[in-house]
Every structure is written in structure tokens, then in C-alpha cells.
Amino acid sequence: MSDAIEVKLSTEHVVINPGEKAEVTAEVRNAGDVVEVFSVAVEGIESDWYSLSVTSISLFPGDKEAIRLSLAPPLSSASGAGSYTVTLKVSSRRDPSVAGTASFSLDVGKVSSYELDLTPRMVRGRSGEFEVVIHNTGNLTNTYKLEGSDPEGMCEFYFKSDTVAVEAGQTGTVPMIVNPKKKPLTGPPKLYRFTVKATPIASDVKTVDGQLECPALLPKWVIMAAAVGVVGVVAVIVLVV
Description:
This protein is mostly beta strands. It is 9% helix and 53% strand. The protein has one helix and 18 strands.
């Protein structure tokens, strides 16, 4: 770095959450003895996290100018939680080796959010195979505990794993089987309504509803045919007697 360029920042530490805005002012002074045109750049964070009031300045020896650095990490999983070192670099266009820098620490807060879904939402069968889908829309990896329940307490829930870790911006799926404890033998199908709950370590609990329609083991026509057969046998016995 060169003594010909002085860069001073208005702060050494910024705390911000994704979706919020903050501003840092940098004072740039030409400490050399020739007129300079300086290029201004930011290092250490993604380009869509900030904007500069200017990207180049022209200064006579001894002159100075203020530059505004506006910070606005987007509200998305791409704005990872953590601490970053942000450096403002001012370089001479005449001689890029002549440069001055100043740095500050940027702490990006945690955002824990997610979406919960079930696919399919309804299954017809003596038992049902589903997939629990969790999309982590936050900016940190989270672990979710899965549970199933139904109002009548008539179903058993089997998850391939009852916990799943999902990285920021990613989607996790867990196979699940719903098995009624008592299945209808005859008559119309029985509809079981149930709820799957995901309990994350770092955010609110969410639930998603599903349905399993369980048909009778023996179709109605089989029962009717059996009944007719019994009546026929009885009639034959009566005639014989």
C-alpha cells in the first residue's frame, strides 16, 4: 500500500440483517504531489450486497472527497449469516500499484425460515407412502425434527429419519409411511386426516396436512356374492330335507 493515498472510514464495525440497509462513509485524500484519478472498489462481499456513490474520483494533491458505501445484503439464503471483513480499495489509475485501503467488519444476522410441504397430499391404499419436503429459505443450515399425528390417534407414522439437516437455500426430503392401526374390512373407504409437524432448532414450528383413504379389505361385491352363496346353500339344504 502507498502513503500517497489516505482512506478513513466512518466506522469499524457494522451489524446488519438480510433485507436491511446501512451506510459507511469513506474519506479519501490524495496525499501525493500529483493530480490523481482513483478507482474505487469493494472486496470481501458479493457485488449485489452493496453500491458505491462513485467508482472513480479525481483529486488534486492535498484534496479529499467522501464516498458513500451503501450496504444492503438481500433477504435470501445467499446472504449467509456470519462475520465478513469488508475492504475499500482506492487505486491510482496512473499506477495501480499505488493504492490505499481501509477495512471494517460486517456481521450479517441469522434468518431462520423454511417452507414445509407433503407430496402427494392424498394417497388411496391400505397404507400410504409420502414424502415430507422442507425448503430452507433462511441463511443458515438448520435441523428439523419430524412428527406425525391424527385427531383420532388411529395412524402410525414411520419416517425414514425423524430428523433432517438442510443447508441454506437447499431442499430436503424424507420418505414417510402412514399405516392405519385398524383398517376397514368391509364397507366404504375410511379417510384418515393427519398432520406432519416439523420442529426446527432455530425457528417456528410448521405443519402440513395430508389424507389417506383406506379401502375395505373385501370389496362390497364379494360380501354380496358370499351372502347370496350362503342363501343358496341354505335353500338347497331345505329342499333336500
